[in-house]
Amino acid sequence: MSSLALYRRYRPETFAEVIGQEHVTVPLQQALRNNRVNHAYLFSGPRGCGKTTSARILARCLNCEQGPTPTPCGACQSCRDLARNGPGSIDVIEIDAASHGGVDDARDLREKAFFGPASSRYKIYIIDEAHMVTPAGFNALLKVVEEPPEHLKFIFATTEPEKVIGTIRSRTHHYPFRLVPPGTLKDYLAEVCAHEAIPVADAVLPLVVRAGAGSVRDSMSVMDQLLAGAAEGGVTYEMATALLGYTDGALLDSVVEAFGAGDGAAVFDVVDRVIEGGHDPRRFAADLLERLRDLLILAAVPDAADKGLVDVPADVRERMQAQATALGPAELSRAADLVNTGLTEMRGATSPRLHLELICARVLLPAAYGDERSLQARLDRLERGVGGGGTAAGPVVAPVQQQPQPVAPPQPVAPQPPVAPPVVQAPAPPPPVREAPATRPGAWPTRSAAAPPPAPAEPVPAPAAPPPPAAAPPGGGGDPSRVQQMWPEILEAVKKRRRFSWILLSQNARVTGFDGATLQLGFTTAGARDSFANSGSEDVLRQVMGDLLGAQCRVEAVVTGGGGGGGGAPVPPRPAAPVQQAPPPARAPSAPEPAPRPAPPAPEPPRPVAPPPVAAEDDIAADDDPDLSDTALSGQELFVRELGATVIEEFHHE
After folding, report:
1. DSSP helix/strand/coil, 543
2. What pairs with residue 41 in β-bridges?
3. pLDDT at 296
4. pLDDT at 238 exceeding the cut of 70
5. Pairs from 250-259 (Cβ < 8 Å, separation ≥ 24)
6. How far apart (Å, rounded) are the C-alpha atoms in residues 364 and 261?
7. How far apart are CA 589 and CA 96, in angstroms?
8. Residue 531: its pLDDT value, please?
9. Pick from 649, 629, 638, 652: nearest CA to 454
């Protein structure tokens, strides 16, 4: 008895002892009770799941003296012959089709099948590995399987039912067997170990179940090997991992915790320990993927262990729960995808260690990828403060705390731009009027060079109007460092949405303040600022900020310096300065250039009044770019509109 393999010593003798196949055993027992037994059966399923064993039990049930019965008596001669250690029955013939699947073997079986049983009720043929029977052999059996004598029964067992020809398969009752669930198999192994009186560590049984992959026979063989090598202390976890080649749980804990902390040195130290310990890098990657799967389930279902979704001891469960919390669902999902892809690439690789190190490097660097899962992983790290220190985690909470305070500082800044329109006498479009001086000097090179008034107009961009917006928001309670660090990512996201907005921001703007609720951008010129405000780019930037930071914020654009950044704002003060420059009309000979163009005022009066140009300015304000229009301004209109001058006298040369 002790010399037999474990799976033979504990082979079931009744349908009640068969585990994990209730969908097959229950209907078969009911058919025996009803005495509605078919003449041919087909048992299919993975190896080691009980097909041949169930065929022998069915033969015992049919030939029992009290049968056909679902529960053999075990006392009659037929039951004893077909018992676990019985000699076998002459009326129950087992044929291995792998070596007896030819047409000659089928003809020999057909000739012997018509002879009645020697001492039993039925003559039963159990044909194992039936898919190995050749098509000619199946055709030779077809007639006897289709119309057998009353004393003849057939039971075909196979792992590949699709290879059994359809004419045979259609004449059988097909029962598909399945792999045994891990929980059921674990309980069964525990009973066997208790019966063997050998102590086994709790963490060993899940390893055996995993090695058996749902096959009862394979799991029993692995358990038999461990029990055979057990010392006085029984089967330990260290012994099982070393013998079965699985990765020690301590190594998996170390690498997962290093992933959570972003500690690259610890990760590659674990890889070195794996290689130096003689472990297979592929096996380590597979075990790591299994661990990430368990962590993903724990992150999604906190009570997964109680529900049987994760089968680990209590102490290991607590560590895994902490690891799932430290990593987060997004980073766990991304890491699992990377390990799964890397494991596929490692098949046939000449340097498995190199592939394993590359997998770990990819998991550690979510910023190296621009896909959605990498972005979610980076956001998770920002919320946990991993990889960026306290500065990464702080700003995520800061907007909620600082949101009430910065609302006040932007309020006084916003009303300032509307102050200029009453003086400029253009109520609706003050922004276009401000933009003109910054963008149009290059459009009229001849007139700008010939006109003397631009000299006093140079100090005008320095009034106090632009500086206050640039200085006010930075004094708020916000910290712009987070947005400044993420500014390249923000620009890249804006570029994907709208290239024009990206050009405006990348070439003309910089972050000058951020308080959690308001983002302040400083532009080099007023023209760039107004183009940003009037082109819809502000909405694009707001959407990108909402996607990356998880919160909507207001965008405030101001002019912070350089060139004509505020050149258009101080239009009202200009009328006073040009009045002092009235004597230079002697240089007006340069005015013949605009003479060919039709001027709104009559050519004869030498002293036009200022109101007509103001009225023309109202008409021009509605145009986006009068410089490029067919109805361009005359010279004196341009002086009045752009420089705020008063025309005293105009000379025309014939």
Report:
1. helix
2. 155, 173
3. 92
4. yes
5. 251/284, 252/287, 252/288, 252/291, 253/319, 253/323, 255/288, 255/360, 256/288, 256/291, 256/292, 256/295, 256/323, 256/327, 257/323, 257/326, 259/327, 259/331, 259/335, 259/363, 259/364
6. 9
7. 117
8. 84
9. 638
d(CA 11, CA 51): 12
Quote the radius of gyration of the chain (alpha carbons, Å).
44
Give, in words, the CATH class of 182-244: mainly alpha
Q: What is the architecture, at CATH level 2, of domain 249-384?
A: Up-down Bundle (1.20)
Cα angle value 565/621/439 (rounded, 5°): 30
Q: Are 13 and 60 in contact (CB under 8 A)?
A: yes
**What's the pLDDT at 634?**
61
Q: What is the pLDDT of residues 266-297, one digit of tens each?
A: 999 999 999 988 888 999 999 999 999 999 99
φ, ψ for residue 509, nearest 5 deg = -125, 155
* CA-wise closest residue to 541 among 492, 469, 594: 492
Residues 185, 221 contacting (CB under 8 angstroms):
no
- Per the listing, tokens 């030779």 go with 140
User: Nearest CA to 616 among 604, 598, 603, 593?
Assistant: 598
Q: Which of 80, 87, 95, 157 is nearest to 125 (CA)?
A: 95
Residue scoring higher pLDDT (156 or 308): 156
pLDDT of residue 528: 83
- Domains in the chain: boundaries: 6-176, 182-244, 249-384, 576-643
Tell me the C-alpha to C-alpha distance, in Å, between residue 392 and each of 58, 121, 250. 68, 81, 30
DSSP one-letter string for 214-262: T-HHHHHHHHHHHHHT-BTTBB-HHHHHHHHTPPPHHHHHHHHHHHHHT
pLDDT (0 to 100) of residue 5: 87
Closest CA to 606 of 641, 636, 632: 636
Which tokens hold the place of 532?
């940003």
pLDDT in tens, 521-568: 888 888 888 888 888 888 888 888 888 877 778 888 888 864 333 333
Length of the chain: 654
Least Cα distance to 310 among 298, 325, 322 occurs for: 298
With a threshold of 0.90, does the pTM exceed it? no
Please report how the helices 264-276 and 281-300 are oriented relative to each other, as an axis angle in degrees rounded to 10.
130
Burial class (CB in 10 A: 0-12, 13-18, 19+), 126: buried
Percent of the chain with pLDDT over 90: 34
Q: Which helix (H) or strand (E) holds 184?
A: helix 182-196
Helix, strand, or coil (residue 152): strand
Asked if residue 612 lies in contact with residue 649, where contact means CB atoms within 8 angstroms, the answer is no
Provide mean pLDDT across the span 183-198. 92
Q: Is 319 exposed, middle or buried (0-12, 13-18, 19+ CB in 10 A)?
A: middle
Mutual angle of helices 481-497 and 499-508, in 10-degree steps:
150
Phi, then psi, of 498 in degrees rounded to 5: -155, 115
Task: Map tokens 């703007």 to a residue.
Answer: 509
The string of DSSP codes covering 62-84 is: HHSTT-S-SS--S-SHHHHHTST
Which DSSP helix (H) or strand (E) runs through 512?
strand 509-514
Q: Which residues contact 300 (CB under 8 A, 6 or more apart)?
A: 329
Measured CA to CA, the distance from residue 241 to residue 249 in angstroms comes to 9
Q: Alpha-carbon distance 282 to 141, whole Å?
A: 47
- Let me know if domain 6-176 sits in CATH 3.30.1330.60: no
- The closest of 559, 560, 573 to 435, measured between CA atoms, is 559
